[in-house]
Design a protein that fits this description.
Blueprint lengths: L1 H41 L1 E13 L2 E12 L2 H21 L7 E3 L3 E8 L5 E18 L2 H8 L3 H4 L5 E3 L3 E3 L3 H25 L5 E16 L17 E14 L1
Antiparallel strand pairs: 1-9, 2-5, 2-6, 2-7, 3-5, 4-5, 8-9
Length: 249
């Protein structure tokens, strides 16, 4: 009986030793894994990637203001309505569609008589009425030609002032997605190039942050921290910047 009891004690001691060794090994493996994981997290590289794409404007907007001054407000409204019809006829004759023409509400201001010293009195000597017009079309050439032909309206006694034609791309969000994707690929290539000399390899991308997104004239080298949205050029260049962080193996 004593031998059996001693054998059981021996087996228990061996089992306890094995359990202790197992705990030590598992702790070592877990600690090693945590160290490697933390090391992986700290071994990272942050790079800036960029990409650009040439685009052609496919949408144009022309804005103008016409006004009149008259001692009688009723007569002033009548003149403005006549000018509005003259402008609309001019645009239609040049191929602009009805739904591409937009008139704003009429603005009217009372003009007060001034004294010889330049002080304004309470006496109304007339009214100034004005109205804005906006023409938007995908026919870039047509809008550009119209902006150069407004002299014919002035010859018809329309008091008109206008701005330069503005040129846009109609799908800026789609362009942003496409160019940002290329900028991210560029960032990864730069990271791979930087770690290649140390025999390292790029792992997963930990984070990515969009930098400046801008639309500039085709041959422009201008850069702004706040971004640029060029509306004066038909031919443009879309530029995107991405700051990305990759793990290094």
């Amino acid at each position: 009986m004593k031998d059996i009891s001693e054998l059981k004690d021996y087996q228990t001691a061996v089992l306890g030793l094995l359990i202790a060794i197992g705990i030590v090994l598992s702790t070592f493996i877990f600690t090693r894994a945590m160290i490697n994981f933390q090391k992986l997290q700290t071994q990272a590289i942050t790079v800036t990637g960029s990409a650009s794409q040439k685009v052609t404007s496919d949408l144009a907007t022309w804005n103008a203001t016409f006004e009149t001054r008259n001692s009688n407000i009723k007569s002033g409204y009548a003149k403005l309505a006549s000018d509005s019809n003259t402008i609309k006829t001019f645009l239609r004759e040049n191929g602009i569609k009805e739904d591409e023409i937009h008139f704003s509400p009429v603005n009217s201001y009372a003009m007060y008589k001034r004294t010889n010293n330049g002080y304004e009195t309470n006496f109304i000597e007339g009214y100034r009425l004005s109205q804005n017009i906006s023409v938007t079309s995908k026919d870039i050439e047509k809008i550009t030609d119209i902006s150069k032909s407004v002299a014919s309206l002035i010859e018809k006694d329309v008091e008109l002032s206008h701005n330069n034609v503005q040129y846009f791309v109609s799908n800026p969000d789609d362009l942003k997605v496409a160019v940002l994707a290329e900028a991210t690929k560029n960032a990864k290539k730069r990271a791979e190039s930087m770690v290649k000399s140390t025999n390292g390899r790029i792992g997963v991308m930990n984070s990515a942050k969009m930098g400046v997104f801008q639309i500039v004239p085709e041959n422009s080298t201008e850069v702004s921290d706040y971004g640029i949205n060029d509306t004066q050029s038909i031919e443009k260049k879309v530029i995107a910047v991405v700051n990305a962080t990759f793990t290094v193996k």
